[in-house]
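Researcher: Batch entry, complex prediction.
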Amino acid sequence: MAAQTAVSEVDGANGRLIYRGGYLIEDLAPVANFEETAYLLWHGELPSRSELDALRHEMVSARRLEDAARATLAAMDPETDPMDTLRTVLSAQGATKTIAKPSAGEAVALTAAIPTIVAGAYRRRQKKDLIEPRDELGHAANLIWMMEGQEPARERVHWLDQYLVLLADHGLNASTFTARVIASTGSDLTSCVVGAIGALKGPSHGGATYAARTMLDSIGTVENAEPWLRDAHARHARFPGFGHRVYRTYDPRAKILRELAKTADPKRHQVAAHTEELALKILHDEHPERPNATNVDFWASVVLTGAGIPKELFTCIFATSRVAGWTAHVLESEEDLRIIRPASVWTGPAPGKKPLPVEQR
Amino acid sequence: MAAQTAVSEVDGANGRLIYRGGYLIEDLAPVANFEETAYLLWHGELPSRSELDALRHEMVSARRLEDAARATLAAMDPETDPMDTLRTVLSAQGATKTIAKPSAGEAVALTAAIPTIVAGAYRRRQKKDLIEPRDELGHAANLIWMMEGQEPARERVHWLDQYLVLLADHGLNASTFTARVIASTGSDLTSCVVGAIGALKGPSHGGATYAARTMLDSIGTVENAEPWLRDAHARHARFPGFGHRVYRTYDPRAKILRELAKTADPKRHQVAAHTEELALKILHDEHPERPNATNVDFWASVVLTGAGIPKELFTCIFATSRVAGWTAHVLESEEDLRIIRPASVWTGPAPGKKPLPVEQR
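Model: Structure tokens for the complex:
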């Protein structure tokens, strides 16, 4: 047990994800958008109409990049991994002259700035000019706008927004835990979020959605699912998008995303559904004792694709969502700050070896 | 127990710090410089003469900043907290097009680049032009050279170098643990180090050396130590530089630094020694059951001052040293990578509360 939290709870045994206030994810997703979800995670209750309006206003005014961040974005090689660009430019965006305690206002500001950086990284990869945010668009719609320069269809915004709601928090996952360890030293919120971005980048964490999409691309057709999976299995390769450290049953977010995928990307849904069925069968046949459920990355990869998000941005879009949880956890931990400095077990030799000066080595 | 490690061991009960291979810090410091110490932490043994030459060559060629890092440094407001500049510019320096597994070569490169960034941040604060590194100078000497543009006296280099040796690793402290959590997701070494910098920035961690110096500045004279400490104690203020989460006796690094301080800054040593004696007495009188020993930050602040390091750079100089340990821990953890995703205790309400659409809230 590394922390107490009321931000979210992953009830792995029962396949339940509970957001702050006691909301099951399947109850919340149909009625809340990302902004409302972030407010819930930060403040403990869903916003009223006027609170939501105030939050939107605050977010809109924090979308534009600071001069240092803008120049840093321009300094990055356009082909840089977008997560590295996000890590660097957000670090510049949140840089300050003196250290400040994490605040709710900063949580809003960092959350609001991320889509501008992600879209900026994408436009630079495309060798296209950056597009300024549009104040009247919501968080998800504005992100697609800044990527494409065209107002996106309502359904695409809905799919992306649902993804952002579903991924916004998930207990003490590795990136959230990173943010809490950094916060525990009394450091600032930008340092916490920048560190969390670095953790999310890992293939075993945020990078898994990309891997799931890559697998589905490689499978390509319903007919190819069986030979592909059998071959991968024979080579002892893992199937991206299956298995989870906490869930012992179907991930409730994956269930919602699987349903959304039917309309978001019907063709890929078909291939994915067939792949899922076979993959679970192969995994179960080999290890019937293991709970080899589909995880959120598998179906997220289909929904994000349907929403028109290029796969090289998947991990950045994950960060766009999870920053709400990271910052909520840091704000919660501020209430009772103790440095996280775990014990280790020494596996080296007993002390007392005498070093020789370099001349005698 | 969060990890097994053979990189270093803090034996708090006996006041011993053991570096990789079984070297007690008090045995190592008199014969090894920072480059040798870093090699030891990375490779498990001290370098031979030819291995040390090869390492020096490798470090010298990695001192110069990449274009993106150089432009990012130029983009930062010169008055930015130097730790924020370091976090941002190192993130740019280590940015890549594709994710790579942490490697010893990268550990060397990041370690070598940090002084260039720290000195660059300092020069910009001073509104002075940057100074290019000088290949024939060692790590510590070159850092002072890039800050001042003059070759430093041999003793100043020695004091700084000794500090860098002593602080290079210290078990699973919060910044090292941050690096290991980030590494556990399969992320890259730059992400680990950037996250660790964010953790080190906290006043309860790397920021404490600055606080100790600020206290000594505020005390100023031997005569003022008692009234200052009594007053601070009456206000329930903590004494920076005293107490540690792990040591239950005198920190062995503080012992070495206390001795160095005598020559590095004799006048401040006098004030500090008197302050130490009184502070320990006041703390002991109130809580005789507590092990209120002097910690490393207290005497480090005097030695760094004697070495001519301005206090606004103290935490950056800490990072300049600890990066050896951070990267050694990450490389060690790569041998058996498991995601660090601790359990949490839910303190929120039971699930099942039904959310209302915003119109009805």
